[in-house]
Design a protein that fits this description.
The protein contains eleven helices and 13 strands. By secondary structure, it is α/β, with parallel strands linked by helices. The protein folds into two domains: 172 residues, Thiolase/Chalcone synthase (Peroxisomal Thiolase, Chain A, domain 1); 149 residues, Peroxisomal Thiolase, Chain A, domain 1. The strands form four sheets. Strands 1-7-6-4-5 form a five-stranded mixed β-sheet, with helices on both faces. Strands 8-13-12-11 form a four-stranded mixed β-sheet, with helices on both faces. Strands 2-3 form a two-stranded antiparallel ribbon. The radius of gyration is 19 Å and the shape is globular. The protein binds acetyl coenzyme *A.
Length: 326
């Protein structure tokens, strides 16, 4: 039993949309966005840049760091709500692009918590089936295609990007020490894309109502986000018999600076231990945690053997936490 993290990678599209740019699109201000969300800018994928294109770049970066051949990968789990097509899975499209011919590939849909769901699934699969020895877990979003650029309540929040991690099954390794994933379907309506699925296919009425885009009850989501991330974090610390003070970095889902700070404070952590990059990326949904972890690793802000506490929440509601050792 055991998992080792071999490498990380990430990718953000070239185009940057600043708060000043948004001032020209909707009735908002840089000051409002900064004070309510902490976001200064976000990356936006090019029209012809797909989720699988971004996932490909992040995956190749992670494989380079891991120093292994793609042929060694036997499992790929890709978390997204904004994949290339309804089917086939974006994981299979990625498989073709990176030529991961020996891998089993599938998508996971758990909104912003998707990457943590992916880690949990990989942990379980690798520790129960000897056929799975090396895996890629990816969080990728082209979520700006689901963004209503006429809705100032939501369009200021989101950005595109991808992050990836290579994991290896290794007896005795403690890469994934404890994890928790959870959902509560009674909250499906507070954060949703109402149309575009089989329940409400896109037609003229949908386009008129703009219900093919993200709708959110911001304050309700805010409260649930803080409580769920704090509780999940405490639970995994308890499972591991560790204290928050043992953690080098808390890496919360980067949705809003105020949510991130509230979670850090409730866990008794100081700002030096709470990683923040929401200012540069906005909310990249399933990509936010792996992008943040890759930044920490590549900036040398985490040493081998140190602990990271990852926590996320998202539409569903979904939430979770993973305690990992780099
Ligand atoms: N610019 C200027 N004014 C705005 C904007 C804007 N972009 N957006 C809303 N306002 C106005 C509102 O219309 C409202 O005006 P009113 O008082 O005249 O009615 C006022 O600002 C306050 O609006 P609130 O919604 O109460 O603002 P709040 O302080 O709650 O901040 C926010 C809104 C930033 C969305 C906050 O609720 C939040 O971060 N919630 C959580 C969001 C989140 O994390 N979502 C998850 C994302 S999805 C996912 O992770 C899958």
């Amino acid at each position: 039993m055991g998992i080792k993290i071999l490498g990380t990678g990430s990718y953000a599209p070239k185009r940057i949309l600043t708060n000043a740019d948004l001032e020209k699109i909707v009735d908002t201000s840089d000051e409002w966005i900064r004070t309510r969300t902490g976001i200064e800018e976000r990356h936006i994928a090019a029209d012809n840049e797909t989720a699988s294109d971004m996932a490909e770049k992040a995956a190749n970066n992670a494989l380079d760091m891991a120093g292994i051949s793609v042929d060694e990968i036997d499992l790929i789990i890709l978390a997204t709500v904004s994949g290339d097509r309804p089917f086939p899975s974006t994981a299979c499209i990625l498989q073709k692009k990176i030529k991961a011919k020996n891998a089993v590939c599938f998508d996971v849909q758990a909104a912003c918590s998707g990457f943590l769901f992916g880690i949990e699934i990989i942990n379980s699969m690798m520790n129960s089936n000897p056929n799975f020895k090396k895996a890629l877990v990816i969080g990728v979003e082209k979520i700006t295609y689901l963004t209503d650029w006429k809705d100032r309540n939501t369009c200021i929040l989101f950005g595109d990007g991808a992050g990836a991690m290579v994991l290896e099954h290794k007896d005795g390794a403690s890469g994934v020490i404890a994890s928790k994933i959870a959902t509560d379907g009674t909250y499906t309506d507070i954060l949703e894309v109402p149309a575009g699925g089989s329940a409400k296919p896109i037609d003229e009425k949908v386009l008129e109502e703009r219900s093919q885009y993200i709708r959110m009850q911001g304050q309700e989501v805010f409260k649930l986000a803080v409580t769920s991330m704090v509780n999940a974090s405490k639970e995994v610390l308890e499972q591991a018999g560790m204290e928050a003070s043992d953690i080098r970095w808390l890496v919360p889902h980067q949705a809003n600076l105020r949510i991130i700070k509230a979670v850090g404070k409730r866990l008794g952590l100081t700002e030096e231990n709470v990683y923040i990059n929401v200012n540069k990326y906005g909310n990249t949904s399933a990509a936010s945690i792996p992008i943040a972890v890759d930044e920490l690793v590549r900036a040398g802000k985490i040493e081998r053997g140190e602990y990271l506490l990852l926590t996320a929440f998202g539409a569903g509601l979904t939430w979770g936490a993973s305690l990992i050792q780099w």
